[in-house]
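We both want to read discrete structure tokens more fluently, so let's practise on a single case. Would you write everything just below, so we can both look at the same thing?
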Amino acid sequence: MEIFNKIEELGSYLFDKRAQGKSIGLVPTMGALHQGHLSLMREARRQCDVVVASVFVNPTQFGPEEDYSKYPRVLDRDASLAREVGVDAIFAPSPADMYPKGYRTYVSVEGITEKLCGRSRPGHFRGVTTVVTKLFNIVRPDKAFFGQKDAQQLVVIKRMVEDLNMGLQIVPVPIVRESDGLAMSSRNSYLNTQERKAATVLFRALKSAESIIDNGERDASTIISEMEKMISSEPLATIDYISIVDLEDLEDVETLEGKILIALAVRIGKARLIDNIIKELL
């Protein structure tokens, strides 16, 4: 496995791979890798000849009061884990290389970026779509792999790729969970022992919603109310949002039908945690 810090060096490496007729898969990450990331890399390994993983803590997707400076940066550990699952190249550029002096160009997807996480993180998705576009232009992958945990991000990226005729396939990969149901996240490292136990309330609330739906409930407000009660009973949890939306356009639904996304964001200690489940109803 090779590690590239410079755009031009990665470009030369991938030019040779393309000349050999090899397919290229990209796994964009911000590092601090866990089994969720590794599941993306394993899937890329199964589907592509060459697997590139980016490790870049992207400053443009963090708000001024968010955790950019504290976000874990452990490239040596990340490289070791990526090597074990068959990644061929890591791209770990500097912010100065990705956003050189005088940088002025951004990519925005309208509407769907202003819902869910976009309500409390203004500008976040503009940073995401900009850096992902840059990575697509640098790597020129045939396929890019994204986790379902960041469900809104996945919807936004799919929309961007289709709208801008980017000519690559976006491959969603299921959420990887701890044994108690907590969705794996780099931000789980912020939790102390008590907070880590409290964080299981996110998945328990989602499973409760699923059970209510399976028992025939179709009124979104009723389901959300039950989830709010469960999460509010956990003293360490503060709800950012709980929403039930159409999976394609992320519009709130009143009555459940078709493919819907049940998504939530909850603050526990210093960590803002997100999770979701998808249901398809006839």
